Amino acid sequence: RATVTEHGRSLLRRASSMLEQARELEDLSQQISAGVESEITVAMDHLCDPSLLYQPMAEYLSQNSTTSIQVVETSLSKTAEMVTSEQADIAIITLPVTNYPAQAFSMTSMLPVVSSKHPLASQSQVCMADFATHCQVVIRDLGATQLENKEQNVGWLKANQRITVDNFDHAFRAVEQGVGFCRLPEHIIKLRNTGQLKVLKVEHNERYQVPLHITLPKGAKTGPAAKCFYELLLSKAAKG
Predict the structure, then answer these.
(1) CA dihedral in degrees (13, 15, 17, 21; nearest 10)?
(2) DSSP letter string over 23-64?
(3) Residue 152 to residues 79, 128, 145, 215: CA-CA distances in angstroms?
(4) Which of the chain's ends, N or C, has fewer CB atoms near its CB within 10 Å?
């Protein structure tokens, strides 16, 4: 009986790879002719639980092999800037931006935390005045520049000493090392705290919630790939 030689098997492997590439090129050309974007940009406010983005993204990419996704983390004025400048196809934001329709997406709870070895950790309850003499870890407004000097501030900022970082990952690391106190999103605390942090009970101020919304900054100019991903994000958030 006829058998395939080693050289033949090598050719078959190469041919199979070439056929797969040809199919991908055909799919890509069909999507391009249909106006489907080769890349979309998603802006996500740093208060959003990343799983709300990446779990639906995994499903989306399994059905769309030709559209790449850029994810841009934003905060405060940078969040609004990504919408008003239409740099993003999809934006997960806190409060809706004026003149840009938005849908409710999720809610993030912010909790005050310190290292379990921090002096405040031994107190059963603290008041806001107790924080004044301890270092505070705060998150930088990623949209502000020194020249513009238009940074936005949110929350209590009366500590005598502050350490400013770019994101909640650095804030978490600073707090667990005993640098100071900070308010962190509850989803980060649940995911990463294994006892090295203590959530403080603060008089009249134990937690606050930040609503998150989702919007299409480009409006009617939004492409089909972005619209499809937007609908999937909304659908998964509603079920979650």
Answers:
(1) 180
(2) HHHHHHHHHHHTT--SEEEEEEETTS-THHHHHHHHHHHHH-
(3) 11, 21, 11, 21
(4) N
State the Cα–Cα distance between residues 164 and 141, nearest whole angstrom: 10
In the chain, count of helices (H) and strands (E)?
Answer: 7, 9
Helix, strand, coil percentages in the chain from 3-state DSSP, rounded to 5: 40, 25, 40
Task: Measure the CA–CA gap between 15 and 8, rounded to whole angstroms.
Answer: 10
What tens digit of pLDDT does each residue of 44-89 get?
999 999 999 999 999 999 988 889 999 999 987 888 999 999 999 9
Please say whether the beta carbons of 97 and 214 come within 8 A.
Answer: no
Q: Please identify every stretch of the chain with a pLDDT value under 70, giving residue numbers as ranges.
A: 1-2, 24-35, 143-158
Q: How many other C-beta atoms are found inside a 10 Å radius of the C-beta of residue 103?
A: 14
Sign of CA dihedral 69, 70, 71, 77: negative
| Alpha-carbon gap, residue 74 to 49, rounded angstroms | 13
Helix (H, G, I), strand (E, B) or coil at 174: helix
